[in-house]
Amino acid sequence: MVRVRVIVVGGGIGGLALAAGLRRQGFDVTVLERDTDVTATGGYHITLDGRAQEALRRLVPPETVERLLASSSALRLRDPDAFWDRQGRLLGHGPRLDDSPSVDIDRITLRSLLADAVGEDLHLGRTVTGLGHADDGTPRVVLADGSIHRCDLLVGADGAHSLVSRHLAGGPTSAPARIVGFSGRTAAENLSPLERRRLGTRSGMVIAPRGAALYVGFLDPVGNAVLDAPGRRAAITTGPTYIWGAMFPESAETDSIRGLRGAELLDAILARFRRQGWGERPLEVMARTDPGSVAAFRFNAASSRARDLAPWPAGRVTALGDAVHATPPTAGMGAGAAIRDAASLLTHLREVTDGSCTLSVAVSRFEAGMRVRGSEILVSAMRTVRWILATDTPLGAVVTATAAPVIAAVGGLRRRR
Ligand SMILES: Cc1cc2nc3c(=O)[nH]c(=O)nc-3n(C[C@H](O)[C@H](O)[C@H](O)COP(=O)(O)OP(=O)(O)OC[C@H]3O[C@@H](n4cnc5c(N)ncnc54)[C@H](O)[C@@H]3O)c2cc1C
């Protein structure tokens, strides 16, 4: 059997999923991650669709899948998504979710479970600062502490601002998507009974004039558990919770909010929505949030054209996930795609170890599939980004402001009949 030593740069979702799979298949793998604690990471919930779950089953041991499902909230147990206007009036519903195989899980819970599956092959507090090749052509990485590590295959799973992809492509592989997101979490029990009833057991979205948007996600890994196995649960969310994401177009005003922290940041977000004519009802979920949970992040996006992704010749250095197809969270598919990349790379690397192809052929096959996957999720995520940005034009603002009350009134009449 051909042995392949792999170094993975980045222990986020994709890097850990890949390393768990490689370890399980007997590969020699090392993950270098700059964070010193896997739970010290931001983010709200991650949606894993049926394809991402199927990929995970190929990567992690069955007991990890079981713990993951016991810590996830099932979409099929939720009411259909809702769309509201900025006064909190219902505009319409999304499709029924009864048949949806998708699950939602806290990003921190998911990352912790994957890190457990990688065990001692995960090295925390290791920042990669440079990469190159040894005289024999094998890749090597340089760490901030000056140490040098060699391998047969180097995989950049180092996220949207990837050092590895930049090295391969000769420049950045993604650019700001012109939207800044702010997220926080609010326990359902902290909301007024009226607002709790309005939001219900579902996720929802408000898109209003001048590019202001609000996503409210419902997460309940206990009440809506995918797998009712309390002993296996590792969820950090222990009661019904609304996880919200506010979005504003990039501007000097948005930038000034982005620099704030905690209660000051929350107050500035609320003040901005109020100045833009939002009613108090849709703002309650933010007003009652734990200020310590509020964070800001800039959306980054790669090109949505498959041929623009991974624009380098296949070789002993490759990349996956956001490092190649950085995706705004507007489609909830970035983490799932990184996991599917990991499963695909593992499949192709097994062809190398059983002698049926060379390493560069395996990498080339993997990158071809990743381009298609990346393009698919970017097209979907950018649809919402473009919609939000369109409401920030003079025409878009007028259309949104006039159409929303009409749709809400018609919807109200229909429901009363
Ligand atoms: C803080 C954060 C919160 C997020 N929250 C959500 C969310 O709530 N919902 C959602 O749908 N998507 C969210 N995303 C995006 C989603 O998690 C990504 O699409 C998905 O994780 C892609 O996985 P990835 O492995 O490619 O990158 P990531 O999961 O971003 O992992 C990249 C990892 O590489 C590490 N790294 C970077 N540079 C170096 C270096 N030089 N040396 C060593 N390590 C390095 C980083 O510390 C990070 O852990 C979030 C991303 C981040 C970073």
Automatic annotation (TrEMBL):
The keyword Acetylation does not apply. Pfam families: FAD_binding_3. One of its GO terms (molecular function) is monooxygenase activity. Keywords: FAD, Flavoprotein, Membrane, Monooxygenase, Oxidoreductase, Transmembrane, Transmembrane helix. InterPro entries: FAD-bd, FAD/NAD-bd_sf. The chain crosses the membrane at residues 395-413. Residues 4-168, 289-356 form the FAD-binding domain. PANTHER family: FAD-BINDING DOMAIN-CONTAINING PROTEIN, MONOOXYGENASE, FAD-BINDING. This is 2-polyprenyl-6-methoxyphenol hydroxylase-like FAD-dependent oxidoreductase. It comes from Streptosporangium saharense.
